[in-house]
Write a structure and sequence with these properties.
With 190 residues, the protein is mainly beta. The protein has 1 helix and 14 strands, in the order ββββββββαββββββ. It has one domain. It has a 14-stranded mixed sheet, with helices on one face. InterPro entries: Glycolipid-bd_prot_put (IPR009467).
Length: 190
């Protein structure tokens, strides 16, 4: 188990990550200020080959709280369970599970951690390119939508990410965890 801290343009994230042979387990906390101040807690578990098995996320702020549970069953069927309490001017949490059919991974918005799974599975730290359907979770509202994302090896430890007109060269450490994701987060080392 390793502890990782990313500093973000409008917040920070701390994750406790257990990265093993083809599997990842993590718990994390993040704070942010856009579009309003929030605190985020999550638990992520993958199955074999770093395929998402479950993501549980809770977001809260002044007078509101939301939760989301995404489960990717072994046969590839996703379930989406969401709850909201309080009043806040954000889109509703959750989404259409059938729109996620074919997705192997979740992508938790503004978290560098979830880029690890497709990059390690595809071997993109060393070579290659792939386009994937992801279950993208918007933060802090916790809305879930399908997202097509392309990962392309640039050079050892650097992978280009592209989705919906956004692109960034993400730097990964030797452990496969994001070191620097421009405009998202930079890992702090002791």
């Amino acid at each position: 188990m390793i502890s990782i801290v990313w500093v973000k343009p409008e917040g920070a994230e701390l994750a406790e990550v257990d990265l093993g042979e083809g599997r990842l387990r993590a718990t994390g906390s993040a704070i942010g200020g856009d579009p309003l101040p929030y605190r985020l807690e999550y638990e992520l578990t993958t199955g074999e080959r770093w395929v998402t098995a479950r993501l549980l996320v809770e977001a809260s702020g002044d007078g509101w709280r939301r939760s989301l549970e995404l489960v990717n069953r072994p046969e590839g069927e996703w379930t989406v369970n969401a709850k909201a309490e309080g009043r806040v001017d954000l889109p509703p949490p959750g989404g259409d599970a059938t729109a996620l059919t074919g997705a192997l991974d979740c992508d938790l918005g503004l978290s560098p951690l979830t880029n690890t799974m497709p990059v390690l599975r595809g071997g993109f730290l060393d070579e290659g390119e792939g386009t994937f359907l992801m279950a993208w979770v918007s933060v802090p509202d916790l809305a879930v939508t399908p997202s097509r994302q392309t990962y392309r090896h640039v050079r050892r430890g650097v992978v280009n990410f592209a989705s919906d007109g956004f692109t960034a060269d993400i730097v990964f450490g030797p452990d496969g965890i994001v070191e620097d994701y421009p405009s998202i987060g930079r890992r702090i080392r002791p």
